[in-house]
Amino acid sequence: MQKIKIAILGFGNVGKGVWKILKENKEEIMKRSGYEIEISKVLVRDLNKPRGINIPENIMTDNVEEILNDKSIKIVVELIGGEEPAKEYMLRAMKAKKHVVTANKLVLAKAGEELFKTAESEHIKFYYEASVGGGIPIIREINESLTANKITSIIGIINGTTNYILSKMTYEGLDFEKALKEAQEKGYAEADPTSDIEGYDVVYKLAIISSFAFGAKINHESIYREGITNITSEDIKYAKKLGYVIKLLAIGKEQNNKLELRVHPTLVPEHHPIANVNDSFNAIFLKGNAVGDLMLYGRGAGDLPTGSAVVGDIISILRSNVDISINDNLGVKEIKDFGENKSEFYIRFNVEDRPGVLGEIATIFGENDVSIVFLTQDVINDDSVSVIIITHHCLERNLKNALNKIEKLPNINKVESIIRVEN
What pTM, to 2 d.p., does this model score? Predict the structure, then answer.
């Protein structure tokens, strides 16, 4: 059996997962790929750092040149993360005629076109399934199984950290800070969790998925973003009373050749399958004009699920029967101005307990073409009440205009929450 040498750049959780899979599933991988895969080098920052895993010392290196200049290494697996030096190493590996596999959504979202063009010009394979859904094969699904479809919408939970936090808040009554701390203790959240909890990670992933699903070049900076840091226990409680669950969703839709791309917390009906995706699991709900509704579900993070996608890409390169490189014919599609988007909204006000307050709110909504489908109130104390409203579909700009006026009313203490609703 032929032997192929590969190198791994970075040996964090995912790198260790790849190592474990290649060692534990060696026989199966050999049968399926037709090759014996040898990990020739592993790039690390600190050679003396304890790894918690048995790995020969002669394989470890802190010098990337040992990998890039070694002609016997045919595949480079980039698992460093971050923008640099990851991008530089991938480009250099490609120019050295090495195939590249990555799980780096940040580099793909920001510099994907440069990487794709370099891979094409150097005639090498560039695979990145693990960059989006961990162990969920969403890119391969779109490029292979759904090629006969026009995809009209994508709605997904594609960040395991935030889904874990919201699940703990929903089902165990934890507040945001406690849920975040627990996620960090379990290794789901980084010491600096900003990319996850503020929604940046999801934006990068949505940009990658949308480019395939809608056949368009996507600038990640054009995607609307809100994180989960403002979600409170009160919002969780009221959502549950109303028959909803709060999830951080990535939403992509195409209509009349215009794209609607957004990332934000969302009220999802509790009976919908995506509402029941909990813990660190991810799910991506697709709608195609031929296949109809389709949901992909699985672990969205972790060493073995993400490692599984990475090893799957390595095997695809060895078999050379799958080409998931980006389509050269991607066009430019207009992304709708956010104010043009339509949604239903959950809004929670803190108002003075005075006659006529609800009437004033309803009047201003009506003047701005915002109609109310549901309204209730809950006593806070002797002077204040919570007013909870769910609207019919309305334009983002109309709701914003209405709320700007409502906030100026003398008996409105605060607009506590604004959360979109997907029914």
Answer: 0.87
